[in-house]
């Protein structure tokens, strides 16, 4: 059975930078949880950042807080731990929080803390995708379901 790595905040865990969560109540998620496919992970917490913590945005290869603190090392450590978990468990699909400096898979904030989005990926999303993991965000669950069927057909065939 294919497992799915998912951002902990999407499962209602209070790990967001502001101490909140982004609970995603969706039939697909509930089904995958019942099937035992879901593996929750927060790369920012795994990288050693506290909750709550200052907001951060990716600027090129670095991640900075609004106060200018460089938190890149924590983001990179969390990404490495996410990749290690995916490799250890044979995970080929991830559902990560959109727009996050760790988890964004298509767009991230531009680093000015003005809520402007640019094309780009978060540190974890980029590392997982480079390692061959299919990375989706919470608005792409139908695509996740399609990819899951493809992977299971490949492993059965």
| Total DSSP helices | 5
The radius of gyration over CA amounts to: 15 Å
Beta-strand percentage range: 15-25%
Total count of strands:
8
Helix content range? 25-40%
Average pLDDT figure? 97
Explain the overall architecture.
This protein has 157 residues and is an alpha/beta fold. It has one domain. It has five helices and eight strands, in the order βαβαββαβββαβα. It has helices at residues 27-34, 43-46, 72-89, 123-130, 141-156; strands at 4-7, 38-41, 56-59, 62-65, 93-96, 107-109, 117-119, 134-137. The strands form three sheets. It has a four-stranded parallel beta sheet with strand order 2-1-5-8, with helices on both faces. Strand 6 and strand 7 form a beta hairpin. Helix 3 (72-89) runs parallel beside helix 4. The two termini are 14 Å apart. The relative contact order is 0.18. The model has no long low-confidence stretch (mean pLDDT 97). It holds the Pfam family 2-thiour_desulf. This is Purine nucleoside phosphorylase. It comes from Shewanella decolorationis S12.
